[in-house]
Amino acid sequence: MITRGISKAQVKIAGKTIMVGSKTDEMHLIRIAEIVNSTLEEIEPTDAYQSMPADYKPILLEINIAEKVVDAQMEVEALKEELAIKEAMIAELTQEL
After folding, report:
1. How far is 65 from 71, CA to CA, in rounded Å?
2. Residue 26, Cα to own-chain centre: how many angstroms?
3. What is the DSSP code string of 11-49?
4. Residue 2 backbone dihedrals phi, psi, to 5 degrees
5. Can you name the residues that pair with 12 across neighbouring β-strands?
6. CB within 8 A of 55, min separation 6: which ones?
7. Any idea what DSSP says for residue 56?
């Protein structure tokens, strides 16, 4: 559903159905919910998660999601550098021809 340029989607996160909105499309919102749920599934079974106070659990989830974001950003940067190197090699080889 789109309202005033905002896409809305009903998603299930941590077993709870909620309505979320964003300027992106509905599939983007669904993908975000999937990432939150998969991260939660990774950390929930751990002893550290089970033994921590309830008010710390969302913080641990946020940290884990932020770690994934940082890892993805680092991967993008590495790929950009690799692409720049390959583009420079192509330009050099093109000049030699």
Report:
1. 10
2. 15
3. EEETTEEEEEEESS-HHHHHHHHHHHHHHHHHHTTSHHH
4. -120, 125
5. 17
6. none
7. G
DSSP label of 54: G
Judge whether 44 and 61 are in contact, CB under 8 Å: no
- Give the number of other Cβ atoms within 10 Å of residue 40's Cβ: 19
Place of tokens 């790929």: 79
Residue 52 gets which letter from DSSP?
A: S
Q: Specify the 3-state DSSP secondary structure of 5.
A: coil
Contact 30, 9 (CB under 8 A): yes
The pLDDT tens digits for 36-79 are: 999 999 999 999 999 999 999 999 999 999 999 999 999 999 99
pTM of the entire structure?
0.78
